[in-house]
Amino acid sequence: MTNIQAELVSECITLKNSELFFSSFDSDRKVDKEHIYNVYRTRFGLEENLRPENHFVIGYKDLLPRLKKSELEFINVSSLMTKNGGFIIFSDYEYSEFVGVLKSKRTLDEVRVKQKGFEHLYKTTIFENGIMK
User: Fold this and answer.
1) 57: CB partners within 8 A, 6+ apart
2) Which branch of life, at top level (predicted)?
């Protein structure tokens, strides 16, 4: 694992007792690895062109090669929104094989403001010592 990937994973783990919002792809409609790779490669290109000095999402340079060489046929993308930012986690659909992670500067509070009036569509959960309360 590269340094930025290890740092992002460590940061994500330290938030285990924080309030967070979790979402993930529907396992009934698996998305193939090549599609995920192409989507995030395009997003990285936009990030490089629009914000070359101050990326809103970090970790692409480490994630993309890991996605490319992954032997998984399908990649699950999960999102953890926290007070410290959003983490986009790439794995298999059983959550047994980790591929990589990105971090977005968008916070849980910002998501709440954007979704004002649509609270019924999402649920936040507090985890304590890794256990859902």
Assistant:
1) 43, 47, 88, 102, 103, 104, 105
2) Bacteria
